[in-house]
Amino acid sequence: MKLATGIITAAFILVASGTADALGNTIDFTKSCEDDLELVPGLNDYVLKATCTGRDKQDYKTELSLNGCIANNIQGGVMEWKDPQGLFGTSCNKCSLSGKERNLLTCACNASNGKRESSQINLDKGIGNNNGVLQCGSVSGTRSLT
Q1: Domain 2-145 of CATH type 2.30.60.10
Q2: What is the pLDDT of residues 77-121, one digit of tens each?
Q3: How far is residue 91 CA from its own chain's centroid?
Q4: Which of 73, 84, 102, 138 could bridge to 97 as Cys pair (CB 3.0-4.6 Å)?
C-alpha cells in the first residue's frame, strides 16, 4: 500500500508540471509555455528557447539542445526521438518551426540514398515542461528567471 501511495504521489507531481507519456516522460510543453518559441541554429545543433511556467507559477526562460533527443534515421532521412544524444543536427539543416502552436519542427535531412528529404516531427510528443525547464526524456535544458 505504501508503494502504491508513493507511485500515485509521483504521478500527480509529474502531471502537475505537464502531461506524461507511457514511460513517465513529461511531454506537451506548449500547453504550459508561452508563444515566444525560438529555434536557434548552432554548429551542427538547434536550440529551442521558450518561456515556461514552473510549479511556483513563475515564468522562466528555458532552452534545450535538440541534439540531445532527436536523431535522423538515415535510412529515410526521417527525424525520430532518441534519448540521449540523437545528434540530428549533424545531418539535418534548414530547420524551422510551424503549426498553430509552433510545435512542428521541419528540417531537410540526409538520407542513405544521397538525397535530402523533408522531415517533420511534433515537438510536443517528446518535449515537456518540467517545472519551468524544457525536458526531453533524460535530457534537461537550462532555465533562468524572466
Answers
A1: yes
A2: 999 999 888 999 999 999 999 998 899 999 999 999 999 999 999
A3: 18
A4: 102
